[in-house]
Amino acid sequence: MLSERLKTFSMPGHTPFQALQRFAVLSESFYAQRITWDKKTWLPNVTPLRKLKVFITLSALLVVADLILLYILAKEVLSYRKDAEFTLTAAVLLVMVFCVLSTAIFVSQMYLFHGKELCFIYRNMNTLKEMCRTEGGTEAGLGSASSKKSCFEGF
Q: Torsion over CA of 93, 99, 105 and 109, rounded to 10 degrees?
């Protein structure tokens, strides 16, 4: 019965930009993000630092969690006496979590310190996309080879 319903159920397809829009709406409802989106034009704006107390606190907690995990990993690897309950599976899992936390720290710090540059890049990409859409008649990447050539001829 359930398998029949799952066969008829289809998820609507979303582009990466639509997924970003949905994530932005969801995450802004929890706390202020460094990059906020204008809901009418979907262009990014930088949030002032004074409104980012929760964002900065959560970023600091990421750093603390990563340092604690690094301490645990270093203690287990470098210690003379090994913990009997610390298996290879636990070590691999801790390394994976450490990598995920390190990536999250990198992304949060990039948003925090390079928000203006990210907004600038996105706005320019949006301008290029609009130029290609109006000049080629279709969105870039979906038109014919001649429209792609004319779209990027000046660059």
A: -170
CA of residue 149 relative to chain centroid, distance: 31
List C-alpha distances in Å: 67 to 61, 64, 77, 80, 151: 10, 5, 15, 21, 48
Q: Is 78 left (phi over 0), alpha (psi -120 to 50) or beta?
A: alpha
* Entry pTM: 0.66
Q: Which two tokens stand for residue 68?
A: 């604690």
pLDDT (average), residues 61-76: 92
| Alpha carbon distance 59, 49 (integer Å) | 13
- Rounded to 5 degrees, what are φ and ψ at 134? -75, -35
